[in-house]
Amino acid sequence: MKKSDVVRAVLGDRYHVAPLHHGGQAFAPTNIALCKYWGKRDQDINLPLTSSLSISLGNKGATVDLRIHHGAHDEIFLNEYEVDRVSPFSKRLIEFLNLFRHHHEPRFSVHIKSNVPIAAGLASSACGFASLIMALDALFGWKLDQRELSILARLGSGSATRSLWPGFVEWHSGIRGDGMDSHGVMIEETWPELCIGLLIVSEKAKGIPSREAMQRTVTTSALYSAWPAKVSRDLSLLKQAISVCDFPLLGKTAESNATTMHATMLSAWPPITYAIPETLLAMQQVWQLRSEGLSLYFTQDAGPNLKLLFLQKDIDTVKSHFPQAEIVQPFVGC
Ligand code: 2P0
What we know:
The chain has nine helices and 13 strands. By secondary structure, it is an alpha+beta fold. Helix 3 (124-140) packs across helix 4 and helix 6 (227-244) packs antiparallel against helix 7 (247-266). The structure holds ligand 2P0. Residues 33, 36-38, 46, 52, 123, 125, 157-159, 210-211, 301-302 line the site of ligand 2P0.
């Protein structure tokens, strides 16, 4: 199955219709996985080996402003700066845009504004591709539903599948070869007291792309065979925790899911770790505070930064120990 086959299947007779408007604009939140997506059953159309579950970060994410451009090439701007057309960032984006047009026509001017650090393990590709597919939908006037948008966002980046909704989202892995059953599903429950602290220990781009790290883990780690069962257990624990607002259960399950994912990477060959010394120091600080009675947990993605998980009642305590953390309340003000 190729990406273009999926696009054709989703768009049907809307495939390659002329744009309805001159522009389209959309915002998508970034999302943090509480149960991670790590490993693919299809690398071309980003089908995962397991389901995953995330929380979207309110107004932290990306806004895409897409316009028809009458120049010789697409132009891409990130936070007001033009990005080199031949950079890996632009190439990936242009490759995605090409799925929806004939022979590079129409050309686009793409303005992306992101308020999350790019490539620091804060899922910038997730909100980037989710907002891009929504902006394309607005520009072409396809009127796709959220499920269809989620399937198309997945072609840009797996984690983008979950960035079409606020709050908790489960990405069902699906079993079909064409991936039509592999999309996000919103979990209705909200949890206003839930807080996430973005603890940036480094804004440097990650050394190894998650795409490559994931594949290396699947093919070389002896621990990976235990991962699908761990995910299935953690998904049901997380859904239980969300349904009854059991914070220690949510925190413990999310932290253990993340440390297990990183253990599979460390056991890959050549070994992979996204942690730097500051990451481990922050982890130890969380464990120390927890042993002293604070209900504080973390999760970590494909980068050195941690996301702290805690409840609103502990905001001041968390701020006093981690003054540099940016605190997000995913369910407040949305
Ligand atoms: C996640 N990550 O569930 C996991 C946890 C990183 C660690 O999804 O190859 O950029 O584009 O499908 O989505 C990062 O991988 O990978 C990711 P592709 P993606 O959030």
